[in-house]
Automatic annotation (TrEMBL):
This is Family with sequence similarity 92 member A. Its main location: other. It comes from Monodelphis domestica. One of its GO terms (cellular component) is nucleus. The lineage of its organism: Eukaryota, Metazoa, Chordata, Craniata, Vertebrata. It comes from the Eukaryota. The keyword Ribosomal protein does not apply.
Length: 109
């Protein structure tokens, strides 16, 4: 009788342990899946907003803005400013020597 009671008690302990293990695993996976769903739901919101913003882009207007930045109204004046500032220091010193007559006559201006 004592062996039967001990055997039953051991079976109950094993059953209780198994029930608790199943509950714990169920809770862990439920929490994990809930967190993942929240994460992916938020990601979907962000992607949806990004997609909508991309769809709102007006290609023609964007191209016009780009072209107007390349070709300002007073294009020749801007081009002269760029040319004047684009000479390297070596080119400037050669130009000065040729103009002043102290250097070789290379014809570089």
């Amino acid at each position: 009788m004592d062996a039967t009671r001990t055997s039953r008690h051991l079976e109950e302990t094993i059953d209780n342990f198994e029930k608790q293990k199943i509950k714990d695993i169920k809770n862990i996976f439920s929490e994990f899946i809930t967190i993942e769903m929240l994460f992916h739901g938020k990601a979907l919101e962000v992607y949806t907003a990004a997609y909508q913003n991309i769809q709102k882009i007006d290609e023609e207007e964007d191209l016009e803005i780009f072209q107007s930045s390349l070709y300002p109204p007073d294009y020749s004046t801007c081009l002269d400013i760029v040319r004047a500032n684009s000479k390297s220091p070596l080119q400037k010193s050669i130009s000065i020597k040729c103009i002043s007559g102290s250097g070789h006559q290379w014809g570089i201006v």
